[in-house]
Amino acid sequence: MTTVRRGVALTPMELRRDMIVRMAVLADDLGYEIFLVAEGWGLDSTVLLAEIATVTRRIKLAAGILSVWSRTPGTLAMAAATLHQLSAGRFVLGLGASTSQLVEGWHGLPYTRPADRLRQVAAGVRSLLAGERAVPAVPRARALRLGQPPVADLPIWIAATGERTIRVAAELADGWYPLYLRRDRCHELAAEIGRLRAGAGRPPLTVAAGPLTVVDQDPEAARTVAAACTAFYLAAMGEVYPRVVSAQGLGEQVELVRAANASTGRALGVVPDAAQVLLDEFTAYGAAADVRKQLRSWDDVADITMVGIPPGIAWPQIEATLRAAAPASGA
């Protein structure tokens, strides 16, 4: 049997620091390849990853994903090099263009030309990690180098779904981490990225993608959790995710979810039966055997199937999900 590669991905809504560390330790024990800690408007993922690095032994640790608006290339390079040291070389830097809601509503910055910003920051970070000098924006400023040993081979993953950001990933990334893309669309874009990289003489990049995942012996309880998180992303997280999902032929279903969760101005966690295809495409839920079967369809698309853990769920559901989806679970 071919060995599958699995990772764990959290959402920025998971704010229980002790629970995140506990998940990372279990994922390390179960043989997962990588553990991604998200960042939004709550926990600082770089600080949390430093803690996780001290209590894990083997698993790779990723900032998944740091906004290119919230830190300069210099601070990103310092954080990446420091986490590389703390984790004995297990750190992966994830970068993304974020959303207008977070950039303007949290960081107070204008959200303009996001693909250009992503390219500029990713290129700047890679240059600094390679030991090159910063490019000063101020005339006559003395350009500095990173005050740590260079880490030119530190992996950089880029989250991208749009045409322009996909090209940035093809040009500058070691890994691609798409969110809310259907499996057939992931496969199509991965092939496009592969052609772009082959034309530039670059090696293939790692494709890391997968569904929001929850295991529960009660299928309806599992669906409730998967629906709550899906509804939040589509009805309360700005316009990026609804636009991305709608552009893949699911606009009618997205509108059904938004309408079902609009009464109080915030997501209530409702995915109507008529929008079930959204759960079929972007989540894996049910009993352990059912979830393992659903994840196999992602193993055919991604190099690393990312097991997304919904925020706020109890430890028994988390543990059951991680154990069922682990690479050595019989998947």
From TrEMBL:
Signal peptide: none annotated. This is Alkanesulfonate monooxygenase SsuD/methylene tetrahydromethanopterin reductase-like flavin-dependent oxidoreductase (Luciferase family). Keywords: Monooxygenase, Oxidoreductase. It holds the Pfam family Bac_luciferase. GO terms for molecular function: monooxygenase activity; oxidoreductase activity, acting on paired donors, with incorporation or reduction of molecular oxygen. Residues 4-299 form the Luciferase-like domain. It comes from Nonomuraea soli.
